[in-house]
Amino acid sequence: MAAQLNTMLAQTNEHVCPLPPVPGAVSAVRRSAAEVMAAWDVCPEIVEDALLVVSELLTNAVVHALPPAQLRLTWIREPGLHTLRIEVTDSGPAYGAERPQDGIDPDEHGRGEQIVHALAARHGIHIHSGGVSRWADLVAA
Predict the structure, then answer these.
(1) Overall pTM > 0.90
(2) Which of 3, 38, 111, 115 has the maximum number of C-beta atoms within 10 A of its C-beta?
(3) CATH number for 55
(4) Is 5 a domain residue?
(5) 113 pLDDT band (50/70/90 cuts)?
(6) What confidence tier does 11 reach under pLDDT thresholds 50, 70, 90?
(7) What mean pLDDT comes out for the span 41-63?
(8) What would the mean pLDDT of 78-87 be, rounded to a whole number?
C-alpha cells in the first residue's frame, strides 16, 4: 500500500527532441530544453547545470557519433526528491577507436565527460542495437 501511495504521489514529465544534423542544432535544442524545464518548473538550482549537461551530451553526439541523435528529458517529482534525467541517444561511434579524429583540437575538446560526471548525481552509458545512450541524473531535494 505504501509503495502504491508513493507511486501516486510521484509525477513524471517527459520530452523528446531530435537533434537535426545541421549547424546550430545544439544551441536550438538547448533553447528548447530550457523552455521545457521552465514549463515544468524545474528547480532553479539544477537548471543551469542541466543546460550545461545537455550541451555537453549533445555536442558529444555531434562530434563523435553517427546521426540521428535525440535528447530525452525526464522530470520526476517525488516527495522530498526531484530528479531530472538527461539522455542523449545517437547511432553509435562515427570513428573507429584506432582512427584519430582529424581537425579536433584536444585543447578545445575532451572535457565533456568530466563536466557531466562532476555535475551529475548518477550517470552512465547504455549500448544497444540502435546505438548508444548517454545519461545523467541531476537531483534536487
Answers:
(1) no
(2) 115
(3) 3.30.565.10
(4) no
(5) confident
(6) very high
(7) 94
(8) 94
Tally of domains within the chain: 1
The pLDDT value given to residue 96: 62
Q: Please, where are the H alpha helices in 22-119?
A: 25-40, 44-64, 112-119
Query: In degrees rounded to 5, what are phi and psi of residue 79?
Result: -55, 120
Q: How far is CA 33 from CA 3, 51, 75, 109, in A?
A: 31, 7, 12, 23
Kindly state whether residue 101 falls inside one of the protein's structural domains.
no
- Strand 81-90 and strand 11-19: the pairing is unpaired
Closest CA to 66 of 87, 96, 86: 96
Tell me which residue range forms the domain holding 73.
Answer: 22-94+110-140
Name residue 86's amino acid. Answer: I
